[in-house]
Amino acid sequence: MKLGWDLKTGLKQYLSSWESADDPSPGKFSYGLDIQVWPKLCTFNGSAKYTYTRQWNGAAFVAAPYSNFLYDQVLVEKKDEISFRYESYNSPNIMILKVNPSGLLTRLIWNERSTAWDLVFSVPNGYCGNYGHCGPNSICSLDQTPLCQCLRGLKLKSQNNQTWPRKCERSSDCKSGDQFLKLDDFKAPDLLESLCQFQTNGRRQWLFNVVWGPD
């Protein structure tokens, strides 16, 4: 199975959910390769992102639950094609990747010994797996109550809205002595836009413009 884009013809290869369990017409959820800025795998609810992986690191998609000793991840980037596929490491394996009508992405692998399908992964696995569940400048964690909290140094813009996503803003302006804080064990937000320009006007200089999306 191959997911991706034929850049010459504009053809897109992706998975589509059924409308319902007993209606095989195309549903509202789809799964495929998003090539905005950097390639990443996304589930879409219509045109809105529902789940996503981080970018490709040369061997796999970062923060993807797809790593497995049974198969390898292959990303092809050519002049007229950007595509992604799985390849078996050793003996061929029978696998199924599907999106159900509610947007749940699952991978199943056939177990010859038990003659049954084994679940490899399912996404999303909780509210924190949903794209932008908490909103900008916030972190979602299953180990905290409530699940969504503003980053340290920020506060809720409004206390009136009691449902997430909500907007977090700076609690005060930056001042002398303020520092960047290190955040461990979290999934970085989606990269929506980037610009990197090299200039030579007597000296070398890199210019960066980066726009991050929600978590």
From TrEMBL:
Chain ranges of the S-locus glycoprotein domain: 55-157
Keyword annotations: Disulfide bond, Signal
GO biological process, alphabetically ordered: recognition of pollen
Protein name from the UniProt record: S-locus glycoprotein domain-containing protein
Naturally occurring in which organism (per UniProt): Citrus x changshan-huyou
